[in-house]
Fold these 3 entries.
Entry 1:
Amino acid sequence: MSSTSFPPRAAPLPGLQADLTQCSVSGLSSGAFMAVQLHLAHSSMFVGAGVVAGGPYRCAESFRAGAVLAGDAYVQGALFICMNPLIPQAGPDPERLLTAARATAQRGDIDPLEHVKDHRLYIFTGTKDQVVQSSVVRTTEQFYRKLGVTGANLAFVGDQPAGHALITTNLEDNALAANCPPYLNQWPEGAPSEMQSWTILRHLHRKLQAPADRLSGRLVRFDQAEFFGDEGTCCFSPYGYAYVPKAVEEGKVKPRVHVALHGCKQGYNYVDLTYGRPDRASDPPYGNRYMTTTGYNEMADTNGIVVLYPQVEGIDDGRIQNPEGCWDWWGYSAPDYYSQKAPQIRTLHRMLQRLGQ
């Protein structure tokens, strides 16, 4: 269990009778790695995934013998293979990881891989990204192509001079090539003129209506604790959020669900840790921006899509080292972090099941 002191509980996540065969997921950075894991773990529920600056499935296990101490292998793989390999050839091997995915599916720990071949993928890397190298993100494309995703179903964008960020049209956000918090960068004048989230949702769901100029629905805060299992919080914050369009809340539309996974340092409850202790004096002012300013809600509002914004936070104690509030894509919460049994994936799946009620 985390040592986090939880505040009073919020209202429960509502059941909205969502169509759980038409879900989609996207994420940035650690959220992109997790998007791939969630997509494969429960591919029967999804129609596609958006991956912005993320690597392939079980990427941190590319070379399990690559550390002197076995306990260090995954974190070193995450840092030096899945984020910044010395040369592209030292990066993740899509064929090896495909073999691992097949073995995982054969054990019944993830859904059958046959579901994935008809899905739609949007994969993006910026040429100025200094956090997750473009060569790694290209192996994500190769991995999905080896799974059978072909033609127009797979959109790979790798020619934009962007840093490590989700791209917006917000004047408040960083310059396009920036590689720093809040990891939201803006398109410059003359570049693509729409939110990257809109591009992602249009590709994954197709034939969407134009985004809303003014939101009709509301952002719901809900209690994440009721979805935790015996394994404890696993770095989840007390609260999660969901954008619910008015037509969905009034029961006029049977919704689809899009899961939007923030990156490191982007959760609402992110706080700098100094020597393992929360450093409120350095508390960043941007924790709500991923769920309010990235454009997902505007596109969802006119298309009957509920956007689920689960939230994780930083922990740095004797058991878990996750000081930057990242999703678990290298095994800090459990050895089988990539499977349906993984604490974080189980929690996310329970949230989706609630929305389907």
Entry 2:
Amino acid sequence: MSAWLARRGARPVGIDNSPVQLENARRFQSEFGIDFPVHLGNAEQTPFPNASFDVAISEYGACLWADPYRWVPEAARILRPGGRLVFLTNGIIRLEPAPSSHAKGPPDP
């Protein structure tokens, strides 16, 4: 998500609690010529100042794994007034219809 936003002129900042994920992110940034900061951390307690962001996005992250009584207030803290909290848990592959007995179309009447 951050790479997509960066290509469209946004200034994303990533945070993940997995060093392996962050290393992958850095490798992909280098490979595709994208550069934005990524931090090792936890959505329940971020290193960011109050009112730092217009949007906070959890893509298969905090919304699934973190304590909502901790990460939601933390997201509110780092969002500017009027900011948006977005969380994504399904991708396009998940939304594609699964094959069924009607894969070739409905049965003839």
Entry 3:
Amino acid sequence: MAAKAFVLIETTVGKNKEVVTALGKLKGVVSVDIVTGPYDVIAILEGESLNDIGDLVTGKIHPIPGISRTVTCLAI
């Protein structure tokens, strides 16, 4: 079963474009948009399993410079 998640991202001031560019290069990131509101960027992820989503978030997304906080919402 494929897994899907929405990642709500807060960035440091002035880093939105750099974060979006870096996210767009990652395998498993289906869509990424700059948004208004309490979060700066929302990314949609897809993977083979929930473990794949978790590995992508913790191993590839969290280390991106300019990301200060994420909230991952799993689609059910």
